[in-house]
Amino acid sequence: MNTIHNRSPFQQQEVAKLEKRIIIWQQRIAECDAYLENPSGERSATIERLKAHDQKMIASALTMIDDIERVEGCENV
């Protein structure tokens, strides 16, 4: 059974919030990459840290989405 179609309204909301955050983090990573193509001074280290943070947040959000779907799958057994 495909759990994606069987999410409760609460789970749908939570997944939608996480997906929106992922898009924002992806956009920020793209901005960081654009800046780092022509870096200037000490700001580059800050941009690298921001990019690494956003990458970790995306990984965390994807794990949370998987957890939400796994819980829903268990409820349907």
Topology:
Blueprint lengths: L8 H28 L6 H33 L2
Helix pairs in contact: 1-2
- Number of DSSP-assigned strands: 0
The pLDDT mean sits at 85
Which class of secondary structure composition applies to the elements?
Answer: mainly alpha
| CA(first)-CA(last) distance | 9 Å
**Count, helices:** 2
Strand content: under 5%
Oligomeric state of the chains present here: single chain
Secondary-structure element series? HH
| Sheet with most strands | none
Low-pLDDT runs of 5+ residues are none
| Anisotropy-based shape | elongated
Number of domains: 1
Rg over C-alpha atoms, rounded to the nearest angstrom? 17 Å
The helicity comes to over 70%
Write structural notes for this entry.
- This protein is mostly helical and 77 residues long.
- The chain has one domain (9-75).
- It is built from two helices and no strands.
- It is elongated and about 50 Å long.
Task: Please outline what is shown here.
The chain has helices at residues 9-36, 43-75.
Question: Keywords, please?
Answer:
2 helices, 77 residues, mainly alpha, elongated
